Amino acid sequence: MTETNLVKRFAEYIRSGEKEENDLKLGLEIEHFVVYKDDLRTVSYYGEDGVESSLEEFSKNAKNIVKENGHIIEVDKDDYYITLEPGSQLEISIEKNNSIMRIEQIYKDFVNEFLPILTEKNQTLINLGYHPVTRIDEIKLIPKERYNIMYDYFNSKGKYAHNMMKGTAATQVSIDYTDEADYAKKMRVSNALSPILFAIFENAFIFEGKPTENHCTRALIWENCDDDRTGIVVGSLDDDFKYQDYANYILNRPPIFTVRNGEIIKTLDKKTLEIIDEDNLTYDEIKHIFSMFFPDVRTKTYIEIRMMDSVPFELALSTLALIKGLFYNQRNLDYLYEKLKKISLKEVEKAKEEIIKNGLFSTYGEYKIIDIAKGLLKLAYDGLDESERIYLEPLNNLCYNELNPYEKTKRLYENSNKLDALRWAIVKGDAV
After folding, report:
1. Does 284 fall in a domain?
2. pTM for the whole structure
3. How confident is the model over 220-229, as pLDDT tens digits?
């Protein structure tokens, strides 16, 4: 199989995700820290009261359970599945749906089933962008071989790569595309909005046990992780960005390892092009390789928007509503595309540097990010059905008070003790 044929094969994987205009759906992933209620220390994966024990109890009525070397690492339910990030951050991935109300109910069902298991152990879930108390050198990796390989590989990469693995938590939203032109338009707009989404959903006031010296810790960490697999995909701000361009991005970078016939094969610094077994390439291996790259906006068989910190669920729903109102209303998408079509990669990168210094109060070009955010909220409101506009209210309230989760925590921190300033982000169960 020649390089040209590989590009076609990988591009066809992206093309296989195309949906009809009336079948566009949203996906939501939210990562949480599992912590002790009293002091917000991390709960280890291991031990009698560890995260694994909670998953074992939670999995009794599961559709499917995935184990590795005898340890539970994934629990599949009917409408969602639970996985773990390297430092035991617990992620819920909700099946794609076109109804925000339905996604809301699925999350509530999860919380109301899982939270009582934690409550019995004096534990809870919290939505923050970085661990509120425990430092990463105190957090053990979960027993998953791929994470051990990645952890060792990142030793020679960016200085915050291990912080990314064990210390961060995110909110991620996925959207569909109808064809290559729609894909290109959504890639351009979402990448151009990258600094704004980082800033308005910034939720990491504490870094390694103390208040940060910067803003937008998530952006800082990803900028210092591994240049081969992070940041803005080169060309994604161009008019003629195509499936084959993202395929080339994947093929000319190292996936670290691949999986064939259930076996993990280390490939380290070798590019994808160099490690493909052309005669035995499968859909599952292509799917795995696509998952090993983490740009701000990632392509699989959908577009994954990845800039947002983990935020309390009402704000996660605001994220969904914002993105749905902007990207699934054709008038709004076309408007943003025209407004942002002159934005260059250099301008986006400059804005990302600015938000790390000044957060929500940065400028992007000649405009203040907080003002851009207000404008986006108005667009999204106009682009949503009346029944879903209510989901914008939590974010709208923050932005119109010129706050984001970081600034809210900072104000609380200045007027109370450290732990009380963070407790607003604890998951509330029936009160979600």
Report:
1. no
2. 0.97
3. 999 999 999 9
